[in-house]
Design a protein that fits this description.
The protein is an alpha+beta fold. The protein is built from eight helices and six strands, in the order ααβαααβββαβαβα. It has a single domain, classed as NADH Oxidase.
Length: about 220
């Protein structure tokens, strides 16, 4: 093993015996298995600090060469949310009436989705995740690495943190999403990756009656 002496610090963390690991891993799986995508949001306010803590948790995700190639834009302004909704619905109108294949539309039927996205105005916050394709330092372009993978990992951390806080979210991907960079006046090195409304569910909210794949369908062991 190579020895590193510069720019490295000791790393310590709690570890657990096998029985406790089994309990903790099972409890976390069962907790995360209650997470669902929701489209029925309440407009009940959420403290800004909660959203900031959630985003900072997401920002602990690993990234290529530790470049952390992400920006999280938090939209709570009603006028901006309205503009986002209008622009997203315009794109979705085209998607549902020509861009999407018949097979795609058929696959979406169990979710009862359409081009109307009222939750984009109702949810107290929209978190727009942008990927940073590159950086600019003193006029010089600097590369970021594994940008999609890195931002995807951060988005996963974000959804887990939202669930942990007792809130709900929807991963919305109106395609194309170029309008988000324009509406939010983002620099040219940023590309919209996900649009995520965040908040409380409405009372008596419902979700599709779905089942997730079992471990026999998602795990392959090589012993």
């Amino acid at each position: 093993m190579a020895e590193h002496t510069e720019n490295f610090i000791p790393y310590t963390r709690d570890t657990y015996e096998a029985e406790e690991m089994m309990e903790r891993s099972k409890a976390f799986y069962e907790f995360m298995d209650t997470r669902r995508t929701l489209r029925e949001f309440s407009d009940k306010p959420v403290p800004r600090e909660v959203i900031e803590n959630i985003i900072m948790a997401a920002s602990t995700a690993p990234s290529g060469a530790h470049k952390q190639p992400w920006t999280f834009c938090v939209v709570s302004n009603p006028e901006i949310k309205k503009k986002v909704k209008e622009a997203a619905e315009a794109e979705e109108q085209v998607n549902y009436n020509g861009r999407m294949s018949d097979e795609w539309l058929e696959d979406l039927k169990p979710f009862a989705t359409n081009e109307h996205k009222p939750f984009l105005e109702i949810a107290p916050y929209l978190i727009v995740v942008f990927k940073r394709a590159f950086e600019t330092e003193e006029g010089e372009k600097k590369n970021n690495y594994y940008v999609n993978e890195s931002v995807g990992l951060a988005a996963g951390f974000l959804l887990a943190a939202i669930h942990h806080a007792g809130l709900v979210a929807l991963t919305h991907t109106p395609s194309p999403m170029n309008f988000l960079a324009k509406l939010l006046n983002r620099p040219s090195n940023e590309r919209a990756f996900l649009l995520i409304p965040v908040g409380y569910p409405i009372e008596n909210a419902t979700v599709p009656d779905l089942t997730r794949k079992g471990k026999e369908d998602v795990i392959v062991h090589y012993d």
